[in-house]
Design a protein that fits this description.
110 residues; mainly beta; 0% helix
Length: 110
């Protein structure tokens, strides 16, 4: 995976098969809709909505990631999680050593 330009991360990312969507705003906020809890390592398979703040972390040791700080929503807890950029997509990894549990692809600009 090549280097990531954090200025290019804001945008809308979708998974057409699941209906999940994440919007990364340029002001550092995000919103997520219809994302299954189990894709993020949670226990439920039902889709949830949540929002908060995001920050790009340039990590040479474990790979770059986007840290999502959850402030509000249906997750049942307030906390954070990692989202991994990969080309024009972002990925959740429920198992850090496994394949992506959910891939959301950047939507074309209108």
């Amino acid at each position: 995976m090549g280097s990531v330009d954090p200025d290019e991360l804001p945008g809308v990312y979708r998974n057409d098969a699941t209906g999940g969507k994440i919007v990364l705003e340029s002001d550092g906020t995000f919103s997520a809709t219809d994302v299954a809890e189990d894709a993020m390592g949670g226990g439920g398979a039902d889709p949830v909505d949540f929002s908060g703040r995001w920050e790009f972390v340039d990590s040479s040791g474990s790979g770059d990631f986007i840290y999502l700080t959850v402030d509000d929503g249906e997750l049942g807890k307030v906390g954070g999680m990692k989202l991994y950029p990969s080309g024009r997509s972002v990925e959740f990894h429920a198992d850090p050593d496994g394949p992506p549990s959910l891939v959301l692809t950047r939507a074309a600009a209108p």
